[in-house]
Task: inverse folding
């Protein structure tokens, strides 16, 4: 993934820009002044730096000079609130790729960044032509071990890794099938990084959150003025991913009309922005993910069979976490290291009871749930060992009922959400009763729809965002 | 957070610095509008119109700032 460093002392601009670019497939870091920016550059290799001209401790001209001297491979775009042609010319002569004046328009900046990275990549290719071809392989290995992706050592994980190695160098479209939270996007990224397209953009798109009206514009883009509200030209995700990989998550949720439009683009490898007559040639590798049985959707007439076969040149099945044996603790250790860094803690281990609990729990939310539980437990742990009391009640209580069932006894009479403290409280607390009922309904519906949140929200008649908030509140996510 | 009316190295006048600071805030608004378009899962037609209005107001403010530069 392309790394971008934003140096801007306007914290809000840096934060919003970082969110926007992360969503568009970049790995973004921010720094609030020149010194912090140079420190970041020292610690990591960046494809591009977006630098504000006016900084607390220096200015864009000095930063550009320093970056070009020490990190010639890194491209620089200067952002400024002053529109001064003389300064722009001077900065470009000094080696800046571009000079953008504020206010920043998201599409405009994305376009400039993509072009800058493309140019920078072409320059790098010239410089690296003499390097051996095995460099791609080396990089892919590095990325599976540098902490971003951890695949585990179970048989299932080894099989996934083998399939990634097999399919990555080809141009095949891939369907990744697996429950929510099993790491489908990580596998998609890994395929991209191990492919010859690794220096090109990886654009991820969540089809579950797309409305019918927005979908066409998001996929194909639109021209300024093509419909009411099209205030400026928008580049679609296909165009954004040109040369690289487009990852479509929850593809089973796409409406039938959009599937037809997609089929045409996938077949012809050409895209036309809404309101434009010009066709743009595409060279995009498609990776799609789904947590539902697309064959069944085809039979029910909800998914186009022709589109399915376009996507299904290769398929990878992601097993649920509970079937991945030793990977559970390997991943838990990995998330513990990250949580320690995030929270500046020094928690080193899990107690034997916690390990047993983790190994026996069903993990309905899979790796995502494990990650959240480890983060939460790290925050709650004072010493250096995570104990049972740091785990959420739904896990420890479920383990209690699991023990009862194993021993042939009936499950405890206390409901799932009830804690020993709660037992002492009056049983007629209406608020708790409502919460319990809500928890059970959400969990039941989620299970019914195989943890497809869009469908669950539809059934529960709430919007997706509310469902996410409720899941977060009851620790389900 | 950036302090308003901070000196720029090349020494522009106060009005130039004020324009710079206003443009910073316009950037914030534009980027927040973009985030809202993403965050609001199923916006009503009215919400879309309001977001478009905010974005076009930012463009208009910038046009006004530019016109006073000449």
Result:
């Amino acid at each position: 993934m392309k790394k971008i460093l934003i140096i801007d002392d306007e914290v809000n601009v840096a934060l919003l820009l970082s969110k926007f670019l992360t969503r568009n497939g970049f790995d973004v870091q921010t720094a609030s002044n020149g010194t912090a920016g140079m420190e970041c550059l020292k610690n990591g290799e960046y494809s591009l730096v977006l630098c504000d001209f006016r900084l607390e401790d220096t200015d864009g001209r000095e930063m550009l000079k320093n970056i070009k001297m020490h990190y010639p491979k890194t491209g620089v775009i200067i952002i400024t609130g002053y529109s001064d042609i003389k300064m722009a010319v001077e900065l470009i002569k000094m080696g800046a790729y571009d000079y953008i004046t504020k206010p920043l328009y998201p599409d405009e900046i994305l376009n400039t960044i993509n072009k800058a990275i493309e140019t920078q990549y072409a320059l790098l290719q010239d410089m690296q032509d003499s390097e051996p071809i095995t460099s791609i392989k080396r990089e892919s290995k590095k990325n599976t071990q540098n902490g971003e992706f951890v695949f585990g050592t179970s048989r299932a994980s080894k099989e996934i890794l083998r399939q990634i190695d097999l399919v990555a160098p080809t141009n095949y479209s891939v369907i990744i099938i697996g429950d929510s939270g099993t790491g489908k996007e990580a596998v998609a990224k890994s395929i991209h990084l191990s492919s010859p397209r690794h220096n090109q953009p990886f654009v991820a798109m969540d089809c579950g959150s797309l409305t019918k009206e927005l979908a066409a514009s998001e996929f194909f883009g639109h021209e300024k003025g093509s419909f009411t509200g099209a205030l400026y030209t928008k580049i679609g995700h296909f165009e954004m991913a040109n040369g690289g990989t487009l990852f479509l998550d929850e593809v089973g949720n796409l409406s039938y009309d959009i599937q037809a439009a997609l089929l045409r683009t996938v077949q012809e490898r050409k895209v036309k922005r809404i309101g434009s007559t010009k066709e743009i040639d595409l060279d995009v590798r498609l990776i799609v993910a789904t947590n539902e049985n697309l064959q069944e959707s085809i039979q029910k007439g909800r998914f186009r069979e022709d589109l399915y076969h376009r996507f299904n040149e290769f398929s990878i099945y992601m097993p649920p976490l509970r079937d991945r044996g030793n990977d559970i603790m390997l991943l838990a250790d990995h998330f513990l290291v990250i949580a320690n860094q995030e929270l500046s803690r020094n928690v080193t281990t899990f107690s034997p009871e916690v390990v047993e609990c983790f190994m026996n729990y069903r993990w309905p939310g899979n790796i995502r749930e494990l990650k959240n539980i480890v983060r939460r437990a790290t925050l709650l742990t004072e010493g250096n060992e995570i104990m049972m009391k740091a785990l959420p009640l739904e896990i420890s209580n479920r383990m209690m009922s699991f023990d009862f069932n194993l021993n042939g006894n009936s499950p405890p009479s206390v409901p799932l959400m009830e804690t020993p403290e709660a037992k002492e409280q009056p049983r007629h607390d209406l608020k708790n009763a409502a919460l319990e009922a809500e928890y059970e309904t959400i969990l039941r519906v989620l299970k019914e729809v195989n943890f497809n949140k869009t469908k669950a929200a539809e059934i529960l008649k709430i919007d997706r965002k509310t469902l996410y908030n409720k899941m977060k509140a009851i620790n389900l996510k | 957070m950036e302090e308003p009316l901070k000196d720029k190295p090349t020494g522009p006048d106060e009005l130039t610095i004020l324009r710079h600071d206003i443009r910073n805030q316009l950037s914030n608004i534009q980027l927040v509008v973009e985030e809202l378009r993403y965050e609001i899962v199923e916006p009503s037609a009215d919400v879309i119109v309001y977001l478009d209005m905010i974005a076009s107001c930012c463009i208009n403010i910038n046009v006004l700032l530019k016109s006073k530069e000449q």
In short: Chain B touches chain A at residues 1-2, 6, 8-10, 12, 16, 19-24, 26-32, 34-35, 38-43, 48-49, 52, 55-56, 58-59, 62, 66, 69 (CB under 8 Å). The two ends of chain B are 30 Å apart (CA to CA). The first helix of chain B runs from residue 14 to 39.
